Amino acid sequence: MADPTTQGNGNGREPTSSDDADLSARLKSLDARIDKASTHRQSAEPPARPTSDSRALGQAFRLSAEFVSGVAAGGIVGWIVDRLFGTSPWGLIICLILGFCAGMLNLMRAAGVLKGARHDGTR
Amino acid sequence: MASPIEQFQIKPIIPVINFTNSSLFMVGATAVIVGGLLLATRKRAMVPDRAQSVAEILHDFIASTLVDATGKEGMKFFPLVFSLFMFVLTANLLGMIPGFFTVTSHVIVTFALALLVIGTVVIYGFVKHGTHFLGLFVPSGVPVWLLPFIVVIELISFLSRPISLSLRLFANMLAGHIALKVFAGFVVSLLAAGGALTILAPLPLLMAVALMALEFLVAALQAYVFTVLTCIYLNDALHPGH
Question: Which ipTM did the prediction report?
Fold first, then answer.
């Protein structure tokens, strides 16, 4: 009989102090949770591989296309030179070697190694 | 089981005028683009509805890509770049529908598109800048004795651009569609094998589903990459200086 009244009294009379305590406790736990979540997200950053993996695949495709196309272009140029001037096989050999160089150049530009050289190709 | 290459076969539909399934899907892609855009912009409302805002977003997206790469004066190439982007994107996405033919998985199609781009660059570059356009092949700050080699290498590097542009798009689409078909084929052959192997059949099916999602990403991404590279090459035609 007495208990409910005092409890009711307590609830009604000192809501401020108990609410304050409650609020600060909740704030603290929220802070802790935020800290935990942010550290968790930071630690979760490296394992977030799937997206970067598909991008790496795309980059692999891109870079290989750059290199192969350089060699192929060199080969075609050499073949045409040989056809035009009858210098077979020297045109093909030399232009293939130059094509390798051009492929490397493409590759380095696409990979961003030669930043200053020319604003070219892929970023 | 069907061969994974079979989906790329070109079959004549109307042999008299050489109209093949490839031509059919090119016409189809064009019809989808033109029809879709006309339908979306039919109302020309001040406040766009859903279809119209999609069309506007596409327009703004390509316009900002072009302006970022080439500056304001690049906008004169906007019709070319927008058409290229829409065609490649639509052809890629149409190819994702099972049973449909993928136009961009044939190297001759992508090479024709790349030649169109490079042809535009070369012709516009020479018309606009004359022989100054050749400065593209002479990098600054190179010793004189090295210059002949560098010029030849730069020339080959320039000639390799249409090849790499077409190769990239074609190889991505070809490889993706073959991989899808191969994994789908695993499902069928595991089911047919019977016994314990039948239980394993859902595994390649899961892989095929995952690949399907990846292929949609690749379809959109490659269309975008093609467009970005087009913009960068056009920038060389507009500003060949160093």
Answer: 0.73
